[in-house]
Amino acid sequence: MESLWTTLGVVAVVVVVVLVVVALFLVVKLVRKHRQVHQPGTPVPTKVAYWVSLAYTVFPFDLLPDPVYFDDVVVLTSGLVYVSRSLTKKARDDRRED
């Protein structure tokens, strides 16, 4: 029985480490978009999504307790997808205007 708890403990630690690494990767990808997000003409909802995604990850108030980064990963992924698509659409619209 003790080996079962040890195995479950190891699996839990591995899952937490993987989620933390994924969350850090997503934070870095989102922060790299900072300059693009703050260009003139970037839609306000894009800026809001950028900042809300980062703030949700940093602030200690989460839907799930902090050792469980699943909710942070979901929020960061959603924010990154939304910001990336919005910036791509903005770039496409800017090229059409030229």
Describe the structure concisely for a colleague.
This protein has 98 residues and is mostly helical. 79% of the residues lie in helices and 0% in strands. It contains 4 helices and no strands.
In round numbers, the mean pLDDT is: 87
Percentage of residues assigned to helices: over 70%
Number of strands: 0
Q: What general form does the structure show?
A: elongated
CA-based gyration radius: 18 Å
Strand content: under 5%
Q: Count of helices?
A: 4
What is the ordering of alpha helices and beta strands?
HHHH
Helix and strand arrangement:
Blueprint: H1 2-31, H2 34-37, H3 44-58, H4 70-97
Structure commentary:
- The protein is mostly helical.
- Helix content is 79%, strand content 0%.
- Helix 1 packs parallel to helix 4 and helix 3 (44-58) runs antiparallel to helix 4 (70-97).
- The longest helix is centred in the N-terminal third of the chain and has 30 residues, at 2-31.
List the main descriptive attributes of the protein structure presented here.
single chain; 98 residues; mainly alpha; 4 helices
